[in-house]
């Protein structure tokens, strides 16, 4: 650790021949601590270059970052707080993060080992939309290997229609999209060692020809009436088109109804 009393004042401007200005500086000690170390591959013990080393405070607020050199070394002098955290990241490796560590007066040596991500692990990301360009939410997406039939991966699209698969092994897959609101869709996908991240084109799903339902409860003073007759009336032609009976809780349901206006009659 060393101390530095070098400071720079603010900038001022003389605007005329008789202009007066005052510039004061308060010199206070800044304590610069040394942090250094080496980053290696945990499986091969080889040093790793261009690893991003980020230093934060103990609440994960960023302070500064740097990169390892060709031999895996990093070194920085900086006015760190008394305690810091260190994060190390490199493509193809799992991210390292330290506990909250103290920077002593004589500095800190921190040696880091990064665990490689398995080569066969791939990431697939894509999106689903309907014919109206709206996100296809909660669509089930299934990946089935054409070689190993028992190898199946499943996920669902989120509310924005996005989906992600992780840990996918190399191979050829059949990709199936299923939803109660859309017709099924399938395509084929080949995963190989050329890419680790597969960004797929948007899949557009066609709406099913779904019809409506009408349900309700027939009750007396808040108590469901069992075996009550419920008649469905098409209000457009004012004619009965269907009937049913309530269950023990007074519940009834009509389904497969085309677009139109309806009302019900009930009798016990």
Automatic annotation (TrEMBL):
InterPro entries: CarboxyPept-like_regulatory (IPR008969), Ig-like_fold (IPR013783). Gene3D superfamilies: Carboxypeptidase-like, regulatory domain, Immunoglobulins. This is Carboxypeptidase regulatory-like domain-containing protein.
